[in-house]
């Protein structure tokens, strides 16, 4: 039973991590990274490492998206201040 | 091998899977809806794993996620609302 | 098999069915507004039912109270975030229509 759980968690993590690497837009990538945090926490719990899963939950579901979104907001605001609307990509 | 672990495996496979289907493509708002449901289902799976492994201390993981997931989602909605104005 | 375990299993099956139905609805229902309807039943019905099943299985004591508190937290947090996501979706759809 534990083997089946490990395989499921590994598959979820593999799919999510591949998508995180293939997503280009930062905001969407932040959501995918939050997903990846959930899947990794599941994997660590199945592998009997609850302390790692605890920190992964904190980092993955709150801190990583917050940092990425703050960076995106700062960069976009600077681009608007520079008045280069064609560079907002 | 007990009912709790079986329920956890079924929920992890058939519950989080459809959320990934929606959450890994589409607009940011749609991904957020998928992320919300995935967080709820994941914390339930963590609760079931704690009972299945009969380690009561593992319930701290679900408690942690139940507190942190709304915070993360509210960060996202706040950012998206600020971007739309 | 004591009646308490039977009750716990029934509650577990009901909660898991609610969660699976919500996940299926999220994947199947068309359009951004209809999909939002999948979020609140999972948080307000599925998660507390499973937490109640675990509490019944654990028996009276501090552990059961903790499980119930986690179920309550999941229900409250899920409801709040559902409203926030719905508000963001409405704004995005209105902006897309303009």
From TrEMBL, chain A:
Record localization: Cell membrane
Record membrane topology: Multi-pass membrane protein
InterPro entries: MrpA_C/MbhD (IPR025383), Nuo/plastoQ_OxRdtase_6_NuoJ (IPR042106)
Domain of life: Bacteria
Segments forming domain MrpA C-terminal/MbhD: 11-77
Keyword annotations: Cell membrane, Membrane, Transmembrane, Transmembrane helix
Transmembrane region(s): 30-47, 54-72
GO cellular component: plasma membrane
Protein name, per record: MrpA C-terminal/MbhD domain-containing protein
Lineage: Bacteria, Bacillati, Actinomycetota, Actinomycetes, Kitasatosporales
């Amino acid at each position: 039973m534990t083997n089946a759980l490990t395989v499921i968690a590994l598959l979820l993590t593999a799919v999510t991590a591949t998508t995180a690497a293939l997503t280009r837009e930062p905001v969407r990538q932040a959501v995918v990274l939050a997903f990846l945090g959930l899947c990794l926490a599941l994997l660590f719990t199945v592998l009997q490492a609850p302390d790692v899963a605890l920190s992964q939950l904190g980092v993955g579901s709150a801190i990583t998206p917050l940092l990425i979104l703050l960076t995106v907001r700062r960069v976009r605001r600077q681009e608007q201040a520079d008045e280069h609307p064609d560079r907002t990509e | 091998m007990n009912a709790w672990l079986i329920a956890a495996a079924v929920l992890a496979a058939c519950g989080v899977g459809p959320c990934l289907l929606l959450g890994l493509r589409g607009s940011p708002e749609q991904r957020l809806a998928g992320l919300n449901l995935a967080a709820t289902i994941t914390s339930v799976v963590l609760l079931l794993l704690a009972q299945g492994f009969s380690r009561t201390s593992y319930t701290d993981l679900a408690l942690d996620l139940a507190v942190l997931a709304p915070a993360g989602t509210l960060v996202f909605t706040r950012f998206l609302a600020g971007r739309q104005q | 098999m004591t009646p308490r375990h039977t009750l716990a299993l029934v509650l577990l099956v009901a909660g898991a069915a609610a969660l699976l139905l919500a996940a299926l609805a999220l994947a199947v229902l068309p359009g951004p507004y209809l999909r939002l309807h999948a979020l609140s039943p999972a948080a307000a019905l599925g998660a507390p039912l499973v937490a109640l099943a675990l509490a019944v299985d654990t028996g009276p004591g501090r552990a059961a109270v903790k499980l119930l508190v986690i179920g309550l937290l999941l229900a409250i947090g899920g409801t709040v975030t559902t409203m926030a996501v719905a508000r963001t979706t409405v704004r995005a759809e209105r902006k897309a229509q303009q």
